[in-house]
Amino acid sequence: MKPFWIISITGIAVLAWLARGLLLPVFLAMMLAYLLSPLIGWTDALSIRRSVAVGAIFSVTILVSVLLGVTIGPRVMAETSTLVERLPETITRVDAALDRSLAELMVTAPVAKSILPQGEKWLSKLLLNRPPEEPGEFFEHAGHIFLLCILVPFFAFFLMRDMPSIITAIMNRIPPQHVETSVAVWRELNGVVGRYIRGVVLDGLVVGALAAVGLWALRIPYPLLLGIFAGIANVIPFVGPLLSAGAATLVVLLYAMGLGAVVRVLVMFLFIKVLDDTLIQPLTIGRSVHLHPALLLGSVVVGNHTLGVLGMIIAVPVATILQETVRLLLEHRRLLASRPRGRAQQSIG
Amino acid sequence: MLERRLPRWLAWTIDPEQARRAPFLAHSPLFAGLPRRLLGRLSTRFLEKDYAPGDMVFHEGDPGRALFVIVKGSVEITRATPRGDHVLRKLTAGDAFGEMALIDDSQRSGGARVAEHARLLILYKTDFDALMDSEARIALVIMRNLSRLLASYARQNAAAMTDARSGAPTTDPV
After folding, report:
1. Does residue B43 belong to any structural domain of this protein?
2. Which of A206, A263, A332, B151 has a C-alpha 20 to 30 A away from that of A169?
3. How far from B76 is each of A324, B56, B81, B159, CA to CA, in Å?
4. Rounded to whole angstroms, how far apart are CA atoms A246 and A125?
C-alpha cells in the first residue's frame, strides 16, 4: 500500500474519532440525501445546475414540512398533551380495578398467590414512578434534537450539491487498473443502500398511515400519535410491529374499552403486518436486502445501548449497510480470485 | 434539452458539463436512436476519470463490470500473444469499448491501454441495470444496438479468419 493511502486512511480515522459527535448527523444527512436522490437524478437529467436543483428541492421540502406541521402538528400536539394530562388519572383508575380483581382472584383461588407477584399498583410503578429527570438533562436532550434539526439538512445540502465533485476527485485518485472493479463494488452498494433507505421510509409512511386510519376507524384514542409511532417503529423488523400493537393495546386497556376492542386492535395490526409482508415491502424495499434475525436483534440491542430509542431506529439500516458491504466485498474477492492467475498477478503488481 | 426552452436570463441555471454529455453520447453507435429525454437520464449515470498515456484501463481476463466511452484522447485494445501484446484496434473520442460488460461480468477478452492522455466516461453495469429496470425503452434500444455491434464483430472476424490464418488481427468486443 502506498504511503499516500496509509496517511489518508489514518488521517480519516483520526478525524472520525475526533469528530465522533458528528457521526450521527452525518449518517442521518446521508439517509436524507439518499431519500432525495431520485429528485436530484431527475434534475441532473434536465441539465440543471446542482446548486440550483438542491436549493429548490430543499425549499420545497421545507415548505412541505411546514405545511404538514401546520395541518397535522396541532392535532398531534393536542393528542400528546391529552395523553400526558390524563395518563396519571387513567393509570390510577386501571390500577385500582386491577388490584381489586387480583384481590378477588387470590381469595377465590389462593394458588394464584404463589404465581402472581406481590404488591399493588403495578402500572403506576411501571409507567409513573420513574426517577424524575434533572432539568439539565431535559435541556441537553432538547439541545441535541435542535442541533440535529439544523445539522442534518445542512450536511445533506452540501452532500447533495458537492457529491459529483467529490466522486470525480476520488475517481482520479484511484489507480487506473483498480477503477473498474473497486468502484463497481461501491456503485452496487450505493444502489442497494439507496433502494433500501427509500424503501424503509416509504414502507414506514404507508404502515403508519394505515395504522392511523385503522385506529381512527376503530375509534381508539390517539390514532395519529399511535400511527406515527407505528410508522417509526416499523423500521425495526419483527420488534417494531409488536411495539406498535402493544402501545395501541395499552391505550385500549387504559381507557377500559373492553376485550372486544383489544381483539379488534390486534386483528388490525396483524392484517397490516400481513399486508406489509406480502404487498407493501415487496413493492417498496424489495426482497434483495435481508438481515439475519440474530444480527437484527443484536443490532437493536447495541443501538439501544449506544443511542437509546434513536439508536434502535437507526440500528437496522446501519447493520444492513454493513452486512451488504461485507457481502459485496466477499463477492468481489471471489470474482477476482476466479481470474486467470497470471493476469491477476499482473494487475495487482 | 431544457436549455433550449429556457429564456436567456435563466441560462445560468444550466450545467454546461451535463448539457454537453447527452448530445455527445447520441453520437455513439451504442446509444443511437435514444430520445433526448432518455439520453439525459442515461448521461447522469456515467462517472468520469482522466487517464495518463500507458495506463491500463483493464487487463485481459479482468471481470468486466463497466462500459467506457472516450471523451478525448485515444485507447488501444490489445490481446496477449506469445510475441507480446498485439494491438487489435485504436479507438478515439466518441468510441465506446467494454460493451460486453453490460450483458454479463465475464472476463475481458482483451486489454485496454491508454495511448494518448484520455478522459473516459464510465457506465457501471449496476447503474445500467437499475436504469433498464425503470426505463424499458433504454434496454430495448441499447440491446438492439449492442446486437448489431456484435453481429458486425462476428462478420468481421469470420472474414478475417477466411482471409488469412496467419494470426490476422480480430475485432472481438471486449
Report:
1. yes
2. A332
3. 36, 10, 15, 22
4. 18
Closest of B99, B80, B101 to residue B153, by C-alpha? B99
User: Which residues does chain A have within 8 Å of residue B65's beta carbon, measured at their own beta carbons?
Assistant: 180-181, 184
- Quote the pLDDT of residue A312: 77
* B9 in reach of chain A (CB within 8 A): no
A22 secondary structure, DSSP code: G
What is the secondary structure of B14-59 as a DSSP string?
B-HHHHHHHHHHHTSTTTTT--HHHHHHHHTT-EEEEE-TT-EEE-
Residues in chain B: 174
**Quick check: is B46 in a domain?**
yes
Facing B124 at nearest CB: one of A168, A172, A184: A184
Angle made by CA atoms B77, B71, A39, in degrees to the nearest 5: 120
**Residue B13 located in a structural domain:** no
Partner-chain contact B57 A176, CB within 8 Å: yes
Q: Name the β-bridge partners of A201.
A: none
B61-113: per-residue pLDDT in tens? Answer: 888 889 999 999 999 999 888 888 888 889 999 889 998 888 877 788 889 99
A194-244 pLDDT per residue, tens: 888 888 889 999 999 999 999 999 999 889 999 999 998 888 777 888 999
CB A197 within 8 A of CB A35: yes
Q: Which domain holds residue B43?
A: 18-152
ipTM of the complex as predicted: 0.78
Number of structural domains (chain B) is: 1
DSSP notation for A47-60: TB-HHHHHHHHHHH
A344/A346 Cα distance (integer angstroms):
5
CB atoms A343 and B18 under 8 Å? no
| A and B: number of Cβ contacts within 8 A | 104
pLDDT over 60 at A39, yes or no = yes
Question: What is the band of B118 on the pLDDT scale with cuts at 50, 70, 90?
Answer: very high
Q: Residue A184: which of B2, B55, B65 has the nearest Cβ?
A: B65
| Per-residue model confidence as pLDDT tens digits over A273-319 | 999 988 888 887 765 566 777 777 788 788 878 877 777 777 877 78
Query: Which domain CATH number covers B29?
Result: 2.60.120.10
B118's enclosing H/E stretch is strand B111-124
Query: Roughly how many angstroms between the first and final C-alpha of chain B, as a whole number?
Result: 32
What pLDDT does residue B65 have? Answer: 87
